[in-house]
Write a structure and sequence with these properties.
The protein is an alpha/beta fold. It contains 10 helices and 8 strands. Helix 2 crosses helix 3.
Length: 254
C-alpha cells in the first residue's frame, strides 16, 4: 500500500468532501453537461465491443478513495439502463462500500453474503428504481457489498466469484462492478481475469501523475483491458462535469 504525503492526504480529504456534495449529481439530477458526457461514455463503451455480443462485465476503479468511482459506476448504470439495456451494478468495494447508502438500498444481503454461501443470488439482487423528471420511472438491478468480510480480496478472486459472474452474464447486457482503489488494496487486480474491461476514474486536483502511472502499470502487469479514463470534477465552463477520454498513452504504445 502506497504511503500518502501530507499534501496528498489533504487532497484526498478535499476530494472526499467534494464527492459527498456531488451525490446529488446522480441520474436525473445530473446537469446537462454531465448527462451528455455520460451518454458519450455509454456510446464509447458500446463501440468498444462493436460486433461482439453484449453480456459484458465492466470494472470501475481509481487510484484512491474519494475520486468518484462509485458515483461514476452508478451514473453509468443509470445511463445504460436509459438506453433499455438490462443492467446490474455490483458493489465490489466490500471494505468501504458506498452504493447501498447512496442509492438508499438495504445494506444486506450483498455480494459478500452470496460468495460465502449465506444468501442466494436472488435474495441479494435489489431493484433500484429512479423517478424521472417527467414522472416516468427507470430501473436497474443492484447487488450491494453486503457485510464486511475479513478476506475481501480472496472472495473477489475466488472461483465462486467467477461462477457468479458467468451465471449473471446470461441475465444482463452489462454488469458494472464498482471496485476498490488500486493504490490502496489489490482487490481490483485479482478480478481482472474475469472482467472484460476496466475504466479508471481520474479526479481533477486529486489524482497525481505518479499515482495514475502506478495504476496503469499494475493493470498492464495483470493484462487488464483498460477501456479508458473518466475525468471527474471538471468545471462545467470547461468540458462538463464529467468526461470520458481514451488515452494517447496506449495508442502510442509507450
Amino acid at each position: 500500500m502506497a504511503k500518502l504525503s501530507r499534501k496528498q492526504k489533504k487532497m484526498q480529504a478535499a476530494a472526499r468532501a467534494a464527492a459527498e456534495e456531488q451525490q446529488q449529481m446522480f441520474g436525473p439530477n445530473m446537469n446537462f453537461a454531465a448527462t451528455e458526457a455520460y451518454k458519450l461514455l455509454r456510446t464509447n463503451l458500446v463501440f468498444s465491443f462493436s460486433g461482439e455480443p453484449n453480456h459484458r462485465v465492466i470494472g470501475v476503479t481509481s487510484s484512491f478513495h474519494g475520486e468518484g468511482k462509485s458515483l461514476t459506476a452508478m451514473n453509468l448504470a443509470y445511463t445504460l439502463a436509459e438506453a433499455e439495456n438490462r443492467v446490474l451494478l455490483i458493489d465490489g468495494d466490500m471494505r468501504l462500500s458506498n452504493v447501498a447508502r447512496n442509492l438508499k438500498l438495504s445494506v444486506k444481503p450483498g455480494l459478500s453474503n452470496v460468495l460465502v454461501g449465506m444468501s442466494s443470488v436472488g435474495n441479494a439482487v435489489q431493484e433500484c428504481t429512479v423517478r424521472l423528471k417527467d414522472g416516468d420511472e427507470l430501473s436497474f438491478d443492484v447487488i450491494v457489498a453486503g457485510e464486511v468480510p475479513p478476506n475481501p480480496s480472496e472472495l473477489l478472486g475466488s472461483n465462486r466469484m467467477q461462477i457468479l459472474l458467468e451465471k449473471l452474464k446470461d441475465m444482463y447486457d452489462y454488469i458494472l462492478v464498482d471496485l476498490p482503489p488500486i493504490m490502496e488494496v489489490a482487490d481490483a487486480l485479482v478480478v481482472t481475469h474475469i472482467i472484460d474491461g476496466m475504466f479508471i476514474v481520474v479526479r481533477k486536483d486529486s489524482t497525481t501523475r505518479s499515482a495514475l502511472s502506478d495504476v496503469i502499470r499494475q493493470l498492464k502487469l495483470v493484462n487488464a483491458h483498460i477501456l479508458g479514463f473518466v475525468f471527474n470534477g471538471a468545471s462545467e465552463s470547461g468540458h462538463g462535469a464529467y468526461k470520458k477520454y481514451y488515452s494517447s498513452y496506449y495508442k502510442s504504445g509507450r
